[in-house]
Design goal:
Length: 136
């Protein structure tokens, strides 16, 4: 790689910016604790409760909430790609982890939340995902 090639990699035309807005989570958590886990998840899905800041940062949404089933969706974006153009594995793992934990929380009674779900997610469980929506 020549020094001119390297300079082109940092050109203004290649820069991107993304602004993320979220609601302060503590008041939302307080309200959610007064609901059953299912009602809290439905509240997030239906827009009655704001999603967690991490969901806003990564960009995933809760698309389906029903007993025994939660579906999380993510629109692949350029800023979530790794250096070889695939969706970064940490993004896929975060999406899966959040869905599993939300499913666990959906079964909780009002006033009771599980501090953490016991997820053992080996990296080998996730295959490559291209940002253009095709699996690797």
């Amino acid at each position: 790689m020549t020094s001119n090639d390297q300079l082109d990699l940092f050109s203004p035309a290649g820069r991107r910016e993304r602004v993320v807005e979220w609601q302060v989570p503590a008041p939302v958590a307080k309200v959610a604790m007064g609901l059953s886990g299912m009602d809290a998840m439905l509240g997030i899905r239906d827009g009655r409760l704001p999603p967690p800041p991490f969901a806003k940062l990564i960009g995933f949404v809760m698309a389906v909430v029903e007993p025994g089933r939660i579906v999380m969706e993510l629109e692949p974006r350029e800023d979530l790609e790794n250096t070889i153009g695939l969706l970064h594995g940490a993004t896929a793992a975060a999406l899966l982890d959040t869905g599993v934990c939300d499913l666990d929380q959906a079964g909780a009674r009002a006033g009771l939340r599980h501090p953490r779900s016991e997820n053992d997610l080996p990296a080998s469980a996730l295959g490559p995902v291209r940002a253009d929506r095709r699996r690797g």
